[in-house]
C-alpha cells in the first residue's frame, strides 16, 4: 500500500466514520476496498493500482445497494463513476473530492423526487438580547495535544456548554484571551446542546476551511457528545495537506473530547482488557 493510499484511508474513515473505507474480505493480491458512501447510498468496490494516485482507482461494482431500492445501486454506481472522472487528476488523491462530488450529484438527482409533508417543528424560543449579553463564567477549556503536520499546527479546545449563547460567548472569549488564536488561519467550531422540553441545538462554523465545521459536528454526532463545544485552531505552515487535513482536525477534536472526560477512550480500555487477560 502506498503512503498516499494509507493516508487517504485514514482521512476517509476519520471524516465519514469508521468503516467507511475498508479492505475487501476477498482481496486477491490487489488493493481492493469497499467504500461506504454517505447517507443511505450504496457501498462500492474499488481497486487501486500500485501506482495510485498516478492512475485512478477502478470502480468494480456495487457491494451493497442503497436502502434496497430498485435501481438505486446502478444509479449510485454511475453517479460515482461520473464524479471520479470529473475530479481525478494524476498524482493527486481523489476519493474525498469524488465522494463530495457524488453527494452533490445525488442530491441534484433526488431534487425532482416528491418530498413527504414536513413534520411540524417544535417552537424554539429565540434568545433575547439580554441573554446574548449575559455575563457567563469563564469557560473551563480542555486543550488537546498540539499536532504539527507538514509545518501546519493544530490544537483543539473543548468546553462544556448549556446554551448556544454561552457557546458563542466562549468563542469570542477564547479569541479575545490570546492573540495567538486571533492570528490562527482558521478557528473551526462546533457544538451540540440539549435544551429544555426536548429541544436540541447544534451549529458549526468552518471559518474559511470549507466543510471542516460540518465534519466536526458529524464527529460529535458519531461520538454522541452533548452539551459541549469544540474549537480547533489551525496555523497554516505553507504546505497543503489535501484531505488529510480533515483527519488531523478530527483527531485533535477527538483527543480534546477524551481529555475533557466527555467520552471514553475505547482503544485504551481494550488494551487494558488485553493486559488483564495475559
Please explain how this structure is put together.
The chain is an alpha+beta fold. It folds into two domains: 3-110, Ubiquitin Conjugating Enzyme (Roll); 135-266, Ribosomal Protein S5, domain 2 (2-Layer Sandwich), CATH 3.30.230.30. The protein contains nine helices and ten strands. It has helices at residues 3-16, 72-87, 95-110, 129-132, 164-177, 179-182, 212-223, 244-259, 266-277, and strands at residues 21-23, 31-36, 43-48, 58-64, 142-143, 147-149, 152-160, 186-194, 200-205, 228-235. The strands form two sheets. Strands 5, 6, 7, 8, 9 and 10 form a six-stranded antiparallel sheet that branches. Strands 1-2-3-4 form a four-stranded antiparallel sheet. A hairpin with a 2-residue loop joins strand 6 (147-149) and strand 7 (152-160). Helix 1 (3-16) crosses helix 8, helix 2 packs across helix 3 and helix 7 (212-223) packs across helix 8. The longest helix has 16 residues, at 72-87. It is globular. The two termini are 32 Å apart. One of its GO terms (cellular component) is ribosome.
Amino acid at each position: 500500500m502506498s503512503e498516499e493510499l494509507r493516508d487517504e484511508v485514514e482521512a476517509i474513515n476519520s471524516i465519514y466514520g469508521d468503516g467507511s473505507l475498508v479492505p475487501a474480505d476477498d482481496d486477491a493480491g490487489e488493493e481492493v476496498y469497499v467504500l461506504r458512501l454517505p447517507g443511505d447510498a450504496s457501498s462500492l468496490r474499488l481497486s487501486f493500482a500500485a501506482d495510485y494516485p498516478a492512475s485512478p482507482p477502478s470502480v468494480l461494482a456495487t457491494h451493497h445497494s442503497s436502502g434496497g431500492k430498485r435501481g438505486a445501486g446502478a444509479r449510485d454506481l454511475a453517479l460515482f463513476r461520473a464524479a471520479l472522472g470529473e475530479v481525478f487528476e494524476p498524482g493527486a488523491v481523489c476519493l474525498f473530492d469524488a465522494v463530495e462530488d457524488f453527494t452533490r450529484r445525488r442530491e441534484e438527482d433526488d431534487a425532482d423526487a416528491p418530498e413527504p409533508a414536513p413534520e411540524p417543528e417544535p417552537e424554539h424560543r429565540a434568545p433575547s438580547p439580554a441573554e446574548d449579553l449575559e455575563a457567563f463564567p469563564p469557560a473551563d477549556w480542555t486543550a488537546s495535544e498540539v499536532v504539527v503536520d507538514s509545518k501546519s499546527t493544530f490544537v483543539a479546545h473543548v468546553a462544556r456548554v448549556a446554551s448556544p449563547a454561552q457557546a458563542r460567548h466562549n468563542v469570542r472569549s477564547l479569541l479575545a484571551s490570546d492573540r495567538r488564536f486571533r492570528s490562527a488561519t482558521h478557528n473551526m467550531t462546533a457544538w451540540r446542546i440539549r435544551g429544555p422540553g426536548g429541544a436540541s441545538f447544534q451549529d458549526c462554523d468552518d471559518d474559511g476551511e470549507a466543510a471542516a465545521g460540518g465534519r466536526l459536528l458529524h464527529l460529535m454526532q458519531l461520538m454522541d457528545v452533548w452539551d459541549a463545544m469544540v474549537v480547533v485552531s489551525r496555523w497554516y505552515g505553507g504546505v497543503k495537506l489535501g484531505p488529510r487535513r480533515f483527519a488531523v482536525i478530527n483527531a485533535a477534536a477527538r483527543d480534546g473530547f477524551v481529555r475533557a472526560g466527555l467520552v471514553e477512550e475505547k482503544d485504551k480500555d481494550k488494551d487494558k482488557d488485553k493486559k488483564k487477560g495475559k
